[in-house]
């Protein structure tokens, strides 16, 4: 049976649901909804700032895209002094990072990476990894539980937030799940759903897609292949240096397979990453365009199309690419990776220039050094635009506070930013950092019985620095 086709949204019929009772199962100082990189950062940041915290997540584990969608390298959070792209570089990690000027994110992220490495589930960022952190998603899930437990966070899994309590003066959230509807009340709520689900339900203004035409970034179903013969692949790369640039390439083989009718891609090349595990690669080469992550009919169609592309790419790799002859798909994302949907309209909207000119702001609560990384929403092509050498940009607290809504902070990939700026700040390490900041802001507001909008940014900065965040010495 094919997926239900997307219908004209305007003509969709509506009916009114009956009112239902929801059991109030917890009351928290801070409720964090969504347990991806931002939600983990928020819950730990809020708890360490002294709040009683409940973290709710729709899946049965934490990690968000990092685990559910198999987005397995944490992109670089180091400043960079780029070197020319190295054709034929015999690596499965980025080759264009050059020398590092050091990390710009500390706090929860640093502790998380340290623990991943200690548990044997990640490689430390170094010149050899192109300053990315390749990790194993199963170890990531376990480390998330360890660190949340150590911080004293209470959590609720299998709970999908269907809306806020209290409309624009948010008082918690309602959840759907196997128990029927339940509610968690809270003084301050942090929306880390990646889609600003709660902000939208509270009536906050938001933008979806590219400003000029509403186009949404493409989705990708990621998958891991094992049985990969790295030595054979590298021997091929040595013999064809123009075919490989560390994490992407094989343009000639893609072209040949396309001409023969063996491949039909919305990209011009293959993108894949090494992992900490021997004989394994992570393939990030499916590209599903023209779909929106806030529409279940689009998501359904995207899952089906992503799986079709995955099968075709795996067959292509086995048939055409040395080193893949005995490789097979061991796992695909349990959900397709959605790069972006809603971005809230906050007190400040981070712009392209903020990123590319590495601008500084007095109310900085997190920093980023990852380039703009814009995947063409309409077909082949990815545009990378880098920051000046050795530089990082500031993310102001105002980007986390939705206009017109109270007692709600937002963190992660759906904060207030332009489409282009979002392509940088959605990198998982930056989401950890904005999450920790939103958690601290929510925690201080809850304990002082005040609104996050009325907090002094300096107080948030002081607590973040106490927790190990890197705010370039502003406080
Ligand atoms: C295909 C793809 C490739 C990428 N590549 C990289 C990369 O190589 N390196 C990198 O650093 N970044 C990469 N990114 C970006 C990065 O993975 C994400 O932007 C980042 O994970 C966002 O973190 P988040 O916490 O804001 O959201 P998410 O990771 O999406 O987490 C949101 C969490 O909220 C939960 N949730 C959502 N709605 C609800 C609800 N209503 N109720 C309860 N729970 C809910 C979800 O289940 C999820 O656990 C990639 C993203 C994609 C999609």
Topology:
Blueprint: E1 23-33, H1 37-48, E2 53-56, H2 65-68, E3 73-74, E4 78-81, E5 99-103, H3 107-118, E6 133-134, H4 137-151, E7 154-156, E8 160-164, E9 172-176, E10 182-191, H5 197-201, E11 206-208, E12 219-220, E13 223-226, H6 230-239, E14 248-249, H7 251-259, E15 270-274, E16 280-283, H8 296-320, E17 328-332, E18 337-338, E19 342-344, H9 352-356, E20 364-368, E21 372-375, E22 382-385, E23 393-396, E24 408-410, H10 419-425, H11 428-447, H12 457-466
Parallel strand pairs: 1-2, 1-10, 2-7, 10-24
Antiparallel strand pairs: 3-6, 4-5, 8-9, 9-10, 11-19, 12-18, 13-16, 13-17, 14-15, 15-16, 20-23, 21-22
Helix pairs in contact: 1-4, 1-11, 11-12
The structure holds flavin-adenine dinucleotide.
Structure in a nutshell:
The protein has helices spanning 37-48, 65-68, 107-118, 137-151, 197-201, 230-239, 251-259, 296-320, 352-356, 419-425, 428-447, 457-466; strands spanning 23-33, 53-56, 73-74, 78-81, 99-103, 133-134, 154-156, 160-164, 172-176, 182-191, 206-208, 219-220, 223-226, 248-249, 270-274, 280-283, 328-332, 337-338, 342-344, 364-368, 372-375, 382-385, 393-396, 408-410. By secondary structure, it is of the alpha+beta class. The protein has 2 domains: 23-84 and 101-211 and 340-466, FAD/NAD(P)-binding domain (3-Layer(bba) Sandwich); 219-338.
């Amino acid at each position: 049976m094919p997926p239900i086709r997307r219908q004209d949204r305007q003509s969709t019929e509506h009916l009114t649901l009956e009112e239902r009772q929801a059991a109030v199962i917890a009351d928290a100082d801070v409720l964090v909804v969504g347990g991806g990189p931002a939600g983990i950062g928020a819950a730990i940041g809020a708890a360490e700032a002294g709040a009683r915290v409940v973290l709710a997540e729709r899946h049965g584990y934490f990690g968000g895209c990092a685990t559910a969608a198999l987005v397995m390298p944490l992109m670089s959070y180091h400043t960079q002094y780029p070197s020319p792209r190295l054709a034929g570089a015999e690596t499965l990690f980025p080759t264009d990072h050059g020398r590092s000027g050091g990390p710009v994110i500390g706090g929860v992220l640093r502790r998380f990476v340290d623990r991943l490495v200690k548990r044997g589930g990640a490689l430390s960022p170094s010149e050899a990894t192109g300053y990315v952190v390749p990790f194993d998603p199963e170890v990531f899930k376990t480390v998330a539980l360890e660190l949340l437990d150590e911080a004293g966070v209470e959590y609720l899994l299998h709970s999908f937030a269907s809306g806020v309590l209290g409309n624009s003066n948010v008082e918690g959230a309602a959840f759907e799940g196997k128990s029927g509807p339940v509610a968690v009340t809270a003084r301050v709520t942090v929306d880390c759903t990646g889609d600003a689900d709660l902000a939208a339900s509270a009536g906050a203004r938001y933008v979806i897609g590219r400003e000029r035409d509403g186009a949404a970034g493409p989705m990708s179903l990621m998958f891991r292949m094992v049985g990969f013969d790295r030595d054979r692949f590298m021997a091929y790369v040595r013999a064809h240096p123009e075919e490989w640039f560390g994490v992407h390439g094989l343009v000639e083989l893609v072209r040949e397979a396309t001409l023969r009718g063996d491949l039909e891609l919305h990209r011009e090349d293959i993108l894949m990453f090494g992992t900490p595990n021997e004989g394994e690669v992570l393939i990030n080469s499916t590209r599903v365009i023209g779909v929106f992550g806030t529409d279940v009919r689009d998501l359904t169609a995207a899952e089906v199309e992503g799986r079709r592309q995955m099968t075709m790419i795996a067959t292509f790799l086995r048939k055409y690419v040395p080193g893949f002859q005995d490789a097979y798909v061991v796992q695909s994302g349990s959900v397709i990776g959605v790069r972006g949907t809603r971005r809230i309209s906050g007190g400040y909207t981070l712009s392209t220039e903020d990123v590319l000119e590495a601008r500084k702001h007095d109310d900085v609560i997190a920093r980023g050094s990852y380039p703009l990384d814009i995947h063409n929403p309409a077909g082949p092509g990815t545009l990378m635009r880098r920051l000046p050498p050795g530089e990082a940009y500031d993310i102001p607290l105002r980007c986390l506070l939705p206009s017109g809504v109270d007692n709600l902070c937002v963190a992660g990939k759906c904060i207030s930013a332009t489409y282009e700026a979002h392509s940088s700040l959605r990198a998982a390490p930056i989401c950890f950092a904005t999450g920790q900041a939103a958690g601290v802001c929510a925690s201080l507001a809850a304990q002082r019985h005040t609104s996050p909008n009325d907090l002094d940014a300096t107080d948030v900065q002081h607590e973040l620095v106490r927790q190990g965040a890197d705010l370039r010495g502003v406080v």
